[in-house]
Amino acid sequence: MSSNSGIQIPSRLPLLCTHDGVLLPGSTMRISVDTARNMQLVKSRLLKGTSLKSTIIGVIPNTRDPEHDSDELPSLHSIGTAGLAVQVVGSNWPKPHYTLLITGLCRFRVTQLLRERPFPVAEVEQLDKLEQYTEGGQADGELGELSQRFYQAAVQLVGMLDMSVPVVAKLRRLLDSLPRETLPDVLASMIRTSNKEKLQVLDAVDLEERFKKALPLLTRQIEGLKLLQKTRKLRPDDDKRVLAIRKGGVFPGRQFSLDEEVEDEDGDDTAMLEKKVKAAAMPEAALRVCLKELKRLKKMPQSMPEYALTHNYLEMMVELPWSKSTTDCLDIRAARVLLDNDHYAMEKLKRRVLEYLAVRQLKSTLKGPILCFVGPPGVGKTSVGRSIARTLGREFHRIALGGVCDQSDIRGHRRTYVGSMPGRIINGLKTVGVNNPVFLLDEVDKLGKSLQGDPAAALLEVLDPEQNHSFTDHYLNVPFDLSQVLFIATANTAATIPPALLDRMEVLQVPGYTQEEKVEIAHRHLIPHQLEQHGLTPQQLQIPQDTTKDIISKYTREAGVRSLERKIGAICRAVAVKVAEGHKEGKASLYLSDQNTENKEEDSGIASPPEMPIVIDHIALKDILGPPVFEMEVSERLTLPGVAIGLAWTPMGGEIMFVEASRMEGDGQLTLTGQLGDVMKESAHLAISWLRSNAKTYLLANGSADPLEGTDIHLHFPAGAVTKDGPSAGVTIVTCLASLLSGRLVRSDVAMTGEITLRGLVLPVGGIKDKVLAAHRANLKRVIIPKRNEKDLEEIPAHVRADLDFVFASTLDEVLNAAFDGGFPAAVNHPQVVSKL
Ligand code: ADP
């Protein structure tokens, strides 16, 4: 190496003892350091030193450094290689160690060991005189001839390698530029040689001897290569084998390995795959593709990128459950019991699910519609899906589709892409390992669209019973029969489900729960479940019904029961701490619960040493969950004219919504604020127009012709940040404005919903059940709904109906009369408008 020509190594060198691998001058090697002396050397010499000299160390091969610092150092090999530590990497895992990258400079002989601890240091004599190389390769006599032969052999070897690999091309160039004398060392470290052979090369201090030792190794490598190429020739499309290049060295220490063992492993692997392919019981078409791919795989060198691709593909193919399935164990009576046990209420949904299952039992292949449960979050859609799988004795797998906007998520990537993989359907099948699971397609309403195609369109093929027996994933590229899979979809709203998809599904509405239903669900399911999850028993924690009601009304505002479950979880956690603390103070009696229920008023919280069971009363509740999050604010807000309560439907369930209006001097402008949809804005304009045209009738105009003369009106929809789209706020806006213009208060216990027309008719709206439940939750007493929605009240539980006073309105006049105490009298009897819609 000409660049090293001037280097004179120090006469004293710290010694690094290695036992695997031999560093030769001119090559680079990675050495792992973990023994005490070697670690010391790295720490105090390499990591602390600042000069170039301090990075030069002596590497002594074939000596194992003793594990303990105190142990005697074994006798050292007398010749070593001085090396330059190029890189030091430290790691603490799995145990503290360093990895050194060392480039060999020249040989040295140990003349005297100066000290052994903390790391050995020796007086050394430099053996290779680096400057002699720079004189050029003009050595003559036997040495000249030897070096010429060696050079030619090296050229021949490199010529047999694939020049398109950059490192091979670089090596070819280096052969000409390196001094000939360095070649034995450089090549011996590159070709396949054992440690013993390398050691012989290292020990050959005399150049002539070194050439003699290294030349047979080189010739052996060339012969090996020739043999390999001959066998390759027999396979015509594969003579361009890229040689496996062993990892672990940086040029020039790379080792070209022509491993026969790797070949064998390779063979084993493919044989194993072949066995698996034959055992996978796949259909004819898939088997043909697999066998073809296997054939290609056998011919491929392992280093080719395509090898891994094809291998992965075949692995995937054999793991798919082509003909593995579970047997259905459906008993409708048992299914009914199971569904009832798992879920309280939701009668309509359970009835439909049972019908569906019954038909399935009678007719084994069902090409019916896909069930789609639509409802607010936390009402048990997913959990019903899981129960269905359980009643059928099938595997259950949930595929979350929220936010999926690439069709290859469903249908996979073509295998031409790097990192391609199958879609979620095929992946799901691989996960469950059978071909007839229950797949729950969660959140189908939240599928997106993007430049990468429309995932909803890809789902069509999956869900269509006419097509899905031959569903073709792009990655597999062979059809897979999905007809045995039972698909169930869930969504929060049917409005955003792509129409074509909706067309293939039967929508089952799962409305929110009433407060009473929530209490029942909490006591039958959520509390026992949470107790179990937290390792508690009912003998340790009791939550009375009143407390549950408090949690529901003061700490949650939701249609489902998810935050209720979370709050119960929070209580369990708090109690678990107390129970765990009290554990040491002796076991509490298991039969205390009866006496204690009477004591619960005094048992103010969990502060003092726990007496089992811990009963959560309202004080304890406040301690654990903090002050109430939601207060009923209805009556407070209705103390001024110009406020009315509407009922809105959102994908999260029903909500009450305050509509506020105020007036100020101006020129008849209308300002709207709040999260509004376009339709809502139109409703507001409609309401204003109707009021203006009827101002005289209702005495709103204060004598003038137009109530808006000289005034601006500001309408605001404050509740929440949900877009309140939909026309159903029409009646509320009219009521609110009528209150503002007349200066009268709207009754504080009335909520209303309904669309209006310009002529003052009230049209029906959707989501009545959710809206009525929201009104009930808010403790309102009277609900005004359009007359034509009267039939929807059937869905509402009887006790809720009994609590509320329903007013069915077909005109705005009726709405206003019901909304104000004592009615909202018109000045003159105007002719009744009758709906013809
Ligand atoms: P969704 O899928 O509708 O968002 P989940 O199925 O995840 O809701 O339900 C949330 C939690 O509420 C689950 O722990 C579930 O067991 C429980 N749950 C919901 N409805 C009921 C019910 N009617 N009976 C018993 N548990 C219920």
Rg from Cα: 42 Å
Give the count of helical stretches.
28
What is the mean pLDDT? 81
Oligomer: single chain
Share in β-strands: 15-25%
Largest sheet: 7 strands, mixed
Distance between the termini: 98 Å
User: Which cofactors or ions or other ligands sit in this model?
Assistant: adenosine-5'-diphosphate
* Shape designation: elongated
- Return the structural class: alpha/beta
Low-confidence stretches: 236-264, 585-608
Counting DSSP E segments of at least 2 residues, the number of strands comes to 26
Strand line-up across the major sheet: 20-21-19-18-22-25-26
Helix content: 25-40%
Outline the structure in words:
GO terms for molecular function: ATP binding; ATP hydrolysis activity; ATP-dependent peptidase activity; serine-type endopeptidase activity. The active site is at residues 728, 771. Its EC number is 3.4.21.-. The chain has 837 residues and is an alpha/beta fold. Helix 6 packs antiparallel against helix 7, helix 18 (515-533) packs across helix 19 and helix 24 (678-693) crosses helix 25 (730-742). Mean pLDDT is 81; it is low at 236-264 and 585-608. The chain binds adenosine-5'-diphosphate (ADP). Residues 343-346, 377-383, 490, 521, 525, 560-562, 565 line the site of adenosine-5'-diphosphate.
